[in-house]
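User: Here's a chain of 165 residues. Predict its fold as tokens.
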Amino acid sequence: MKKSFIIFGCMFALTLSCNQQNKQYDDSYAETILLQYLTTVNNPQGTCLNLIANKDTCFTTSGLATNSTEAEKNAQCTTMRTSSQYNTMSTISQTCVFDCQSKDWSYKQSSGECKTSNITSLVISSLSNNVVLSCIRSCFSPTSNIVTNENAAQLLLFNIIQNGD
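Assistant: Prediction complete.
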């Protein structure tokens, strides 16, 4: 009987210890999410304009001049933000998704991919880039909203233009 009580006591102590560790992890995760939320810039229109500027720079480098005016770029961003893919998102989520794509286009420019690729391969490279898709999925992790690669790819600039939204 004494031996059973000791085993039960050890198991109870171990359970309490595990629960405490889980609580510490949960608290740490909540703090990380809150910090991410508080430090995220909330400027979807400006981030979208930056995305378009980086894409245009890449396209110009690859031989396709883009001569959109600022008004046209602003209209394009407004249209994107009100499209079915974006209109249910928070402005912080929109900002995050645009930032992921902007970084992708900037990387293509700095790596020289814009110089050596045609437009079709540049677009395909975005659609198949796991770093970009992972970045987009991370935009929704604070809300525990799971985004598949297919869903993330639907948020890319060219899918929205192609769908006419």
